[in-house]
Specification:
Layout: H1 3-20, H2 25-32, H3 36-45, H4 47-73, E1 75-78, E2 84-87, H5 91-101, E3 121-125, E4 134-138
Antiparallel strand pairs: 1-2, 3-4
Helix pairs in contact: 1-2, 1-4, 3-4, 4-5
Amino acid sequence: MDEIARMAHNKKVFLEALELCLGNVTKACKSTDIGRSSIYRWKREDEEFKDAVYDIEEVAIDFVEDKLFQRIEGVFTESNDGEVYKTPPSDTAIIFYLKTKGKKRGYIEKTETEITVNQPMIVEWGDPAHEDTAKQETE
């Protein structure tokens, strides 16, 4: 097998492993015995490979988002003995979702404020104990 065919084969094997590992690059590298440096090089040099990795990462995010929504809604689970249990909705999952997706509706912990001052401002840098501290007036 020539070098180009071997690299194409390794890329294909890695992408299959990456999908099975839900986008976890470390696990996919270990399971295929392909080094991370090769993956980064392939992503730099091969736009199609880079896009395939991105698509797998997006699927992994969708999978985790689905788990988050399950925690928000509450989940029914069945034990080995056939009993069904309801896990109640998670306040933490609800808060996390609102802090990340509900920012524009005000679900944030800190307030971001922009202040415009129309006056010169003195900026000092250096050690204030020394007389040679530089000063610059900015507007």
